[in-house]
Design brief:
Blueprint lengths: L1 H30 L23 H12 L21 H25 L13 H15 L13 H12 L11 H24 L2 E4 L11 E5 L6 E4 L5 E3 H4 L1
Antiparallel strand pairs: 1-2, 2-3, 3-4
Helix pairs in contact: 1-5, 1-6, 3-5, 3-6
Length: about 240
């Protein structure tokens, strides 16, 4: 049973790291029109995707959806107002995953996070009260603590949960088997949602210029946070953005 719990914790840690690593790609999908990307060294212009969206309306929608993130910590990836058209499916995934992970951190912290050390009673000697006061302040400011009002982003929550699953030191009780399985369930769902969003968002389109090598038709796939890829359907030559920049 112990080995099973260990395996669950290890798998959960991998999935938590996946969420952290994937979050910038999700944010990038909201802020970048990937199908307008082009390899500059080839001089290729891509066909616009023909969207009928109103950029101003999209921007207003993004502002409304993400207004609550303005106060978040700079050290965490957060959802911000996007100057580019918003992919509502990705927005929905990010909002759902973020809400689930933050709620999980909130509830788990209530069970495993040690309360801040109490202040010294008034009958203690002044020197002892001063020393205890410094210890209380240090304990309260411990960056390893989960802060219910400040750390409301998916990456902050995921990072804190990852530290708990890995049993890193801090003002916490070790996670029990039920804790690990609860985290595994929520993180497993978040992992699948993100994976589906990234995998399903990659788009393909024909480029409006011929292959510079053989004159064949070019196509580009992009849009999932990965590297845009241009392929010639005739000679099979491939170009990626880093290789042509």
């Amino acid at each position: 049973m112990a080995s099973t719990a260990t395996a669950t914790a290890e798998q959960t840690a991998v999935r938590l790291q996946y969420v952290i690593d994937s979050w910038p790609h999700l944010v990038d999908m909201l802020t970048t029109r990937h199908n307008a990307t082009w390899p500059p060294a080839m001089g290729i212009r891509h066909v616009l995707d023909g969207r009928d969206d109103d950029p101003e309306a999209d921007r207003a929608l993004a502002d409304a959806l993400f207004a609550r993130t303005a106060e978040r910590a700079d050290s965490c990836y957060t959802l911000g107002a996007s100057p580019a058209p918003v992919r509502l499916q990705v927005v929905d995934v990010m909002r759902t995953v973020e809400a689930d992970l933050v709620y999980l951190a909130d509830t788990l912290a209530q069970e495993v996070q040690r309360p801040v050390m109490r202040k010294a009673p008034s009958h203690w000697l002044p020197a002892d009260r001063e020393l205890r006061g410094r210890l209380v302040a240090k304990d309260a400011a411990d960056p390893r603590r989960w802060r219910y009002r400040e750390q409301r982003s998916a990456v902050c929550a995921t990072g804190w949960l990852l530290a708990r699953v890995k049993q890193r030191p801090g003002p916490f009780l070790p996670l029990g088997r039920s804790h690990v399985h609860r985290v595994a369930a929520v993180v497993g769902t978040a992992h699948d949602r993100i994976q589906q969003a990234l995998g399903g968002a990659r788009t393909a389109q024909v480029v409006d210029r011929p292959c510079p090598l053989c004159g064949g038709t070019l196509g580009m796939s992009s849009g999932d946070g990965g590297t845009p890829l241009v392929v010639c359907f005739k000679c099979s030559q491939e170009w990626t953005l880093p290789a042509t920049a």
